[in-house]
Amino acid sequence: MTADAEGNDLSKVLIPITGFVAVQLTGTPTYVDPDKGAADPLVLPEGYVKVGLIKTDGAPQDGGDKGDDIDFWQDGYKLGGDRTRTLQITAAEFNELIIQLTTGKTPDKNGMIIVDGDNDATFPLFQAVKYKNGYTRRRNGLARIQTVEPDQETRGENPGNAITFDWIRNEEWGGFYRQWLIPPKTTTTTPTTPSTGK
């Protein structure tokens, strides 16, 4: 579909339908190669593990903040404050990976850990979202956990952990993360010669 007379194009509207978030908690941090980020199928570097199911009402949500501007006495002079980028999800599963991700601890043979705060380590983070119009968006960068907010334990409902990640600016890349927006695959058909019935 192309844009209508008003310049609107419904085929460019991004309506998320599924996706995943993966982390690399062990080993030397590795990232998806810029040339391979749009590959299909995508192959994540060794050590990445998907965090599992994400609650519908806790689907990935981008956020950010901007520090206060620095104003100068002379009119018209100002330095912009630092900017941050965040990603929040609510993990539906409560498995060993989520425990390690949120606390930085690995449960012992009895399933026990000593919780003394949130995980303050940095680690590679990967996010992928598929959209109804066939587009896919992927992101990869270094992150840390800003906050972990467990849901209320309500009878009959799935309690999750709302996890907010801070994307950490990578000076080598000049940004917070690499992002790929991959258009839908175009299908090509081979013309066929109609049968003459002879």
Describe this structure in words.
- The protein is mostly beta strands and 198 residues long.
- It has one domain (12-182): Roll (Pnp Oxidase, Chain A).
- It has 1 helix and 10 strands.
Protein topology:
Layout: E1 16-23, E2 49-50, E3 61-66, E4 70-71, E5 78-79, E6 83-91, H1 96-103, E7 122-131, E8 136-150, E9 161-168, E10 178-182
Which terms summarize this structure?
eight-stranded antiparallel β-sheet, 34% strand, mainly beta, Pnp Oxidase, Chain A, 10 strands, single chain, 1 helix, 198 residues, Phage major tail protein, two-stranded antiparallel sheet
> What characterizes the major β-sheet?
8 strands, antiparallel
* Helix/strand structural class: mainly beta
CATH class: Mainly Beta
* Total individual domains: 1
Q: Quickly give the CATH architecture.
A: Roll
Span of the ends, CA to CA: 40 Å
**Could you state the order of secondary-structure elements as H and E?**
EEEEEEHEEEE
On the 0 to 100 scale, the average pLDDT is 89
Beta-strand segment tally: 10
In DSSP terms (H or I, runs of 4 or more residues), the helix count works out at 1
Protein name: Phage major tail protein
